[in-house]
Design a protein that fits this description.
With about 350 residues, the chain is an alpha/beta fold. The chain contains ten helices and 17 strands. About 25% of the residues lie in helices and about 25% in strands. Helix 3 packs across helix 4 and helix 3 crosses helix 8. The structure holds NADP nicotinamide-adenine-dinucleotide phosphate (NAP) and zinc ion.
């Protein structure tokens, strides 16, 4: 467990009638990939191929496919299958299918009988139902992170109906956090960033936030007491939640999308402010399409740092060290273009 990522051969399932084969061009690195590979959530199934922010070109389609034609661009996010008939699936919540969502990697694959393998890969086969249309003209490298970091922060902003002028806090300025800031600013909310990294404070204004607070200094939180309508926390490791809850206004909600455990809840402080602590899980397929279209329409794009496949392990270390500004994206495209333009290399 925790072994480095190395190149290997894998077998994809044959393209079924409703499947498409995508030639992967870009794959984002999510902290969930790091959690999985490094054993934070237990021992993964091996081989483990992470990656659930995938953008690529459709190179083959099954005979019954209607959503894509060969040559178009498609995206794949965090899930690749669900029952399609339960109450959640029927209401665009496939990510919390009552019979079990099939996630893009490290998940039992009901179709092949094996384990799903993700997007750090030359190609993926996916049902068209779980593939997202990418509008022509969209920048492809920076589209990849929208498929997880974007949807995971867009969904709670929509569900809790964030309105212009509301005060929104974002905890942790990483992949999810910087998308939360951009999406909330686009809603004309007034955004406060809570960071543990002094070096990121200067980025607050560039990202459109009103302020950034170093929340390692509990005194710095005091002027914000009882002021925020909603907080989205993206912290990946266990953290003290009460100092953040104290900044919520009456009936405010802290949505914990980061998968670190919130600790130290003060029942009395919660009761006296009728405050709420909530969770949220990515978003459904229709909502994922909506966030892609929304970002394209409003010119919202993640800040990406491009890497080559041989730099993945170093990138993982930098993610853990909070040293990503603000999403690593693995570039498979340049290599493919280079090969394609060199006839001798075929
Ligand atoms: P990321 O890029 O590493 O960003 C997380 C940020 O949290 C860091 O940049 C850092 O920001 C802050 N942070 C890190 N360690 C911390 C600590 N020990 N205490 C306080 N703050 C800390 O990670 P990400 O890709 O955005 O993912 C964040 C979390 O969301 C992960 O746990 C991931 O598994 C989870 N996730 C959940 C969903 C969902 O559907 N619910 C979907 C995707 C990912 P500062 O430097 O600003 O402090
Ligand atoms: Zn993710």
């Amino acid at each position: 467990m925790g072994a480095p990522i190395v190149p290997m051969q894998i077998q994809r399932r044959a393209v079924g009638p409703h499947d498409i084969l995508i030639d992967v061009l870009y794959a984002g690195i999510c902290h969930s990939d790091v959690h999985t590979v490094r054993g934070d959530w237990g021992v993964p199934a091996y081989p483990c191929v992470p990656g659930h922010e995938i953008v690529g070109r459709v190179v083959s389609v099954g005979e019954k496919v209607t959503k894509f034609t060969v040559g178009e661009i498609a995206g794949v996010g965090c899930m690749v299958d669900s029952c399609g008939t339960c109450e959640n699936c029927l209401n665009d919540r496939e990510q919390i299918c009552l019979r079990g969502t099939t996630f893009t990697y490290n998940s039992p694959d009901k179709v092949s009988g094996g384990t799903t393998l993700g997007g750090y890969s030359e190609g993926v086969v996916v049902s068209e139902r779980f593939a997202i249309r990418i509008p022509p003209g969209m920048d492809l490298a920076s589209t990849a992170p929208i498929l997880c970091a974007g949807i995971t922060t867009f969904s709670p902003l929509r569900h809790w109906q964030v309105k212009p002028g509301q005060s929104i806090g974002v905890v942790g300025l990483g992949g999810l956090g910087h998308m939360a800031v951009k999406l909330a600013v686009a809603q004309r909310a007034e955004v406060t960033i809570f960071t543990t990294s002094p070096g990121k404070v200067a980025d607050a204004k560039r990202l459109g936030a009103k302020r950034a607070v170093l929340w390692t200094d509990r005194e710095a939180l005091k002027p914000l007491a009882n002021s925020l309508d909603m907080i989205i926390s993206t912290v990946p490791y266990p953290f003290e939640v009460q100092p953040l809850l104290d900044t919520l206004a009456l009936e405010g909600t802290l949505v914990n999308v980061g998968l670190g455990e919130p600790r130290g809840l003060n029942t009395f402080a919660m009761a006296f402010g009728r405050k709420r602590l909530a969770g949220s899980m990515i978003g459904g397929i229709a909502e994922t399409q909506a966030v892609i279209d929304h970002c394209f329409a409003h010119g919202i794009a993640p800040d990406v740092e491009m890497i080559t496949p041989d730099q993945i392990n170093t990138a993982f270390d930098r993610v853990v060290d909070k040293d990503v500004r603000y999403r690593f994206v693995i570039d498979f495209a340049s290599r493919k273009h280079a090969v394609a333009s060199t006839p001798d290399a075929r």
